[in-house]
Amino acid sequence: MAAGEQPARTLTEHFGDQPFSNHPERWNSLWQDEWTPWDRSGPSMALSDLLEQHTELFDLPGATTRKTALVPGCGRGHDVLLLAAFGFDAYGMDVSTLAIERARKNADAVEGDPVYTQRGARAGTVHWITGDFFKGDWGREIGINAGRFDLIFDYTFYCALPPPAKPAWAQRMVELLAPGGKLVCLEFPAKKPSSEPGPPWAAPPYSYVAYLGRPGQEPVRDEHGGVVESEVQEPRQTDGGLKRVLHTTPQRTHAAGTSDGEIVDRISVWEHI
Predict the structure, then answer these.
(1) Where is this region: Disordered (predicted)?
(2) Looking at the domain assignment, is residue 2 inside a domain?
(3) Which of 36, 53, 190, 204 has a Cα-to-Cα distance from 225 of 20 to 30 A?
């Protein structure tokens, strides 16, 4: 297939009959084909607005402080560069070696773009990691162990995971988030029914509550693997999860998160209970 040419199949067909252990190779093959329909061609303005408008939730880096941020499944790294502009030492991680190559090239290509203008007293550093989010070796290699990220941003990573992988996703988020840190989730696709397979898999707001509130545990799921909303319970301190401290509709988001001109994405902020 020629570079950039769209394959005749969908993402669902590309991953449909593959075990989760094969997904890394399948993502890498899409980068090789240069068919990346999930790429938004720029950073999340929902994240930018959140950091600017809800400073009470974020102890943003200052001239003498350094804080770390992680974007798992970073792709071309748009949001990694945005977080660095806000002063975070930002780490973009992807399981695809080709994705990280594209991220490095993208960082060079957008240098000087005003969307990445430095905010505040300092600009953060940018780091690229090829690694498996669910394993700890990449953290040890860069000298940042579990519980060391002050901000984690998840946009198209959660929805890229099939339902059986989501309990481990939640457990890993809890492990990687520093005390006092914040996990930010741009919830997409928030309105997709669980009966429609992924990726992207359905990501209704209540599913984040179910998984992050009780990390590592299986919620009650329907016949399609989606979380049953009526069975979702609020997190308890004894479950060792995260609690939601903000849930709102962003003022701006990517076109993929709109329907008939209405924003259907939601953005949430989480912290340790």
Answers:
(1) 1-20
(2) no
(3) 36
